[in-house]
Amino acid sequence: MTAYLGEFIGTAILLLFGSGVVANVSLKNTLATGQTPWVLITTGWGLAVFIAVYCVGDMSGAHLNPAVSLALALAGKFSWNLLPGYVLAQLIGAMIGAFLSYSLYKSHVDATEDEDAVKGMFCTGPAMPNTARNLFSEILGTFVLVFAIFRLTSPTLSFENETATVFGLGSIGALPVGLLVWAIGMSLGGTTGYAINPARDFGPRIVYAFLPRKNKKPDWGYSWIPVVGPLVGAAFATLLNSLLNSL
């Protein structure tokens, strides 16, 4: 339960700060309106990861991402028995974090007529819709994320029973992971908004769908891409890492 709680709290923190920085630069009448959005957004998300991993790394390993948990399970470094609970905790945490950000910025949400700006604080979308390329963008971004995590991490957290050994991001410290996400956003994120995390996108998208707004556009037709893409990218990263380790 401590591990699940850690994933819930960590993912909530991640979304509170990540959704918050998008809201701060996109919504009407905030103090950051008019600033350089992409620099602030990518920096904010990188720092959000740093803070979240720092806070809960010793509780759960701070996966905070179903794609990371899946990759570790595929690599035999994380128990499949724990995977459903981790994913559920991550999804609920992402929903709570996004809702807290919305609650903080509600006056600015209400004042914002640009629905894309409101939607953007919750979930991602393509700059240029193209199913194959948008999917490739999420696969590639998550591939880089997970492959780098494999090359940087070492095990530090375990649960002493016959089913669970957890390898987590907390093992390398929070800063390198934050820098990694920042770099992915700056270099690879301009096509789809770099979800690279199914829970981070799908959970807040559900929250957005329930907002009392007349012109909501949760875009469920696109929503599978930031879920499937990261999972596929994580699987490929696991395969490459296993091949390299076997050399």
Explained architecture:
With 247 residues, the chain is mainly α. It has one domain: Up-down Bundle (Glycerol uptake facilitator protein). Helix content is 66%, strand content 2%. A two-stranded antiparallel sheet has the order 1-2. A hairpin with a 6-residue loop joins strand 1 and strand 2. Helix 7 packs across helix 10. The longest helix has 25 residues. It is globular and about 55 Å long.
How far apart are the termini? 38 Å
| Fold-level CATH name | Glycerol uptake facilitator protein
Structural class: mainly alpha
Uncertain spans: 162-167
Fraction of residues in β-strands:
under 5%
CATH level-two architecture: Up-down Bundle
User: Total helix count?
Assistant: 10
Give the beta-strand count: 2
- The global form is globular
Q: Which strand order does the major sheet show?
A: 1-2
Radius of gyration: 17 Å
How helical, in percent, are the residues? Answer: 55-70%
How many domains would you count in the coordinates? Answer: 1
The CATH fourth-level homologous superfamily? Glycerol uptake facilitator protein
* Average pLDDT taken over every residue: 89
Features:
10 helices, two-stranded antiparallel sheet, Glycerol uptake facilitator protein
SSE topology:
Layout: H1 2-26, H2 37-60, H3 66-74, H4 83-104, H5 106-111, H6 115-120, H7 131-152, E1 157-158, E2 165-166, H8 174-188, H9 198-209, H10 225-246
Antiparallel strand pairs: 1-2
Helix pairs in contact: 1-2, 1-4, 2-8, 3-4, 3-10, 4-9, 7-8, 7-10, 9-10
Quick rundown:
The chain is mostly helical and 247 residues long. The protein has helices at residues 2-26, 37-60, 66-74, 83-104, 106-111, 115-120, 131-152, 174-188, 198-209, 225-246, and strands at 157-158, 165-166.
